[in-house]
Design a protein that fits this description.
about 45% strand; two-stranded antiparallel sheet; about 10% helix; mainly beta; 1 helix; binds zinc ion
Length: about 60
């Protein structure tokens, strides 16, 4: 499974965006534009797009 991670602009920590994909192709194919992610680090909402999410492989 590929987890889409963001970097919290307040804490600088990697945060799971809540979006997960079955494989890297699905991650690469997704179009993100100002998607809102509730940050588990600082509790605020962050806007994410394709340039701010990073693919993070994890066990299913
Ligand atoms: Zn945050």
């Amino acid at each position: 499974m590929i987890k889409a991670m963001i970097t919290c602009p307040r804490t600088g920590k990697a945060v799971f965006s809540g979006m997960a994909f079955g494989n890297l192709a699905a991650f690469d194919g997704v179009k993100l534009e100002n998607n809102v992610v509730r940050c588990t680090e600082c509790g605020e909402n962050h806007l994410v797009d394709n340039s701010t999410v990073k693919a993070f492989p994890s066990e299913p």
